[in-house]
Design goal:
CATH class of the largest domain: Mainly Alpha
CATH topology of the largest domain: Serine Threonine Protein Phosphatase 5, Tetratricopeptide repeat
Distance between the termini: 17 Å
Oligomer: single chain
Shape: elongated
CATH architecture of the largest domain: Alpha Horseshoe
Helix content: 55-70%
Structural class: mainly alpha
Order of helices and strands: HHHHHHHHHHHHHH
Number of helices: 14
C-alpha cells in the first residue's frame, strides 16, 4: 500500500446531502476559501475537487447544488483520487447525489481498495465478515490496512487474533493502539501485560515488559482542526491558491490536466500531495484527511 491513512470512524452513510448538525462554514464565512478552491481545482488540484464535491453535496460554505457536486466528483475521479473513489462508492450505495446502484457502489469500493485507501480496505473487510466471507481474505485486508497504521483495522485484527488465541499478535496491536489512546486499548494492553508476566517463558516476559513500557508512555493528542476548523480551511484553500493559481493552466475547465509531479506528469514537482487519512462524512473530516 502506497500511502498511510487514518480513519475517524466507520460508517456506511457517508455525505448525506442534507446539512449536517455542525457545518464547517457559517453562512458567508467561506466565500474566499471556496473561491480559492475553485481556482485550485481549475488548475488540477484533485484535493480541491473532492472538497468542492462534498461542499456542494452537503451545502457547506455554499448552497446545495447537486449538479456541481456531480461535476466535481467526476473530475476528482478522473484524477484517480482514492478518497473520491470511496466517497463515490458510498454515494452510490445510499443514493446520494447519484442514483442508488449497489453494483456501481461495489465497483468504486474496489477501486478505492486497489488504490490502497485504508478506510475502503477496512470497509471491504467488514463487508466480507458480514457476508461470512473467507477468513484468510479478511485477515489479509485488515493486515494491509493495519500496516499503514489504520487504527480501526488494527483493533478489529487484534480482536480476531484474540478470539483465535493468537495472543502475542493481539497484544502487539493493542500495544501500539494504546499509544494512540484508541478505544479500550489501554485496558487491553494492561491485561495482556499481566497475562504474559505470569508466563515462565522468557520471550513472554520480555513482551510483558515492552507492554508495560508502552503503558507508561504519555499520550499527547493534538486536534487543532477541531479547535479552529475555519482557520485550517482558509489556510488550506490559500495554500492551494498559492501553489496552483500562479501557474499557467495546463487544461481547459472541461478537461483539466494533472499538475506536474502527479502520476501522469513526470516533471518538476509543483504540488506536494499530503497523504489522506480519513473517510470523510463532511468537509471538516475531509480536510483532516488532506
Amino acid at each position: 500500500m502506497k500511502m498511510k491513512y487514518w480513519i475517524l470512524g466507520f460508517t456506511l452513510s457517508f455525505l448525506a446531502p442534507q446539512a449536517l448538525a455542525e457545518n464547517l462554514c457559517a453562512e458567508n464565512d467561506c466565500s474566499e476559501a471556496i473561491e480559492n478552491l475553485h481556482r485550485a481545482a481549475d488548475y488540477g488540484a484533485d484535493e480541491a475537487m473532492i472538497i468542492l464535491a462534498v461542499s456542494y453535496a452537503n451545502g457547506e460554505g455554499v448552497n446545495v447544488n447537486m449538479d456541481q457536486a456531480r461535476i466535481w466528483m467526476k473530475e476528482a475521479l478522473r484524477f484517480r483520487n482514492p478518497q473520491a473513489y470511496h466517497v463515490k462508492s458510498n454515494w452510490r450505495r445510499n443514493g446520494t447525489v447519484f442514483e442508488q446502484n449497489e453494483e456501481r457502489a461495489d465497483y468504486w469500493l474496489q477501486k478505492a481498495v486497489e488504490s490502497g485507501y485504508a478506510p475502503a480496505v477496512y470497509e471491504q473487510a467488514v463487508r466480507n465478515i458480514r457476508a461470512n466471507g473467507d477468513i484468510d481474505e479478511i485477515l489479509a485486508l485488515l493486515k494491509d490496512a493495519a500496516k499503514d497504521g489504520h487504527p480501526e483495522s488494527m483493533y478489529l485484527l487484534a480482536q480476531l487474533f484474540e478470539e483465535s488465541n493468537q495472543h502475542r499478535q493481539a497484544a502487539q496491536l493493542y500495544m501500539h493502539l494504546a499509544v494512540k489512546n484508541y478505544r479500550d486499548s489501554n485496558e487491553r494492553n494492561r491485561a495482556y501485560a499481566r497475562y504474559f508476566e505470569q508466563s515462565e517463558q522468557e520471550e513472554d516476559r520480555e513482551l510483558a515488559a515492552q507492554l508495560r513500557e508502552y503503558e507508561s508512555m504519555e499520550v499527547i493528542v493534538v486536534r487543532g482542526i477541531q479547535s479552529e476548523p475555519m482557520e485550517y480551511f482558509n489556510d488550506f484553500s490559500a495554500r492551494l491558491n498559492e501553489e496552483f493559481y500562479r501557474r499557467k493552466a495546463t487544461g481547459s475547465n472541461v478537461r483539466r490536466a494533472p499538475p506536474c509531479g502527479s502520476f501522469a506528469s513526470p516533471c518538476n514537482i509543483i504540488f506536494d500531495r499530503k497523504t489522506r487519512d480519513t473517510a470523510a462524512t463532511n468537509v471538516e473530516e475531509l480536510l483532516q484527511g488532506l
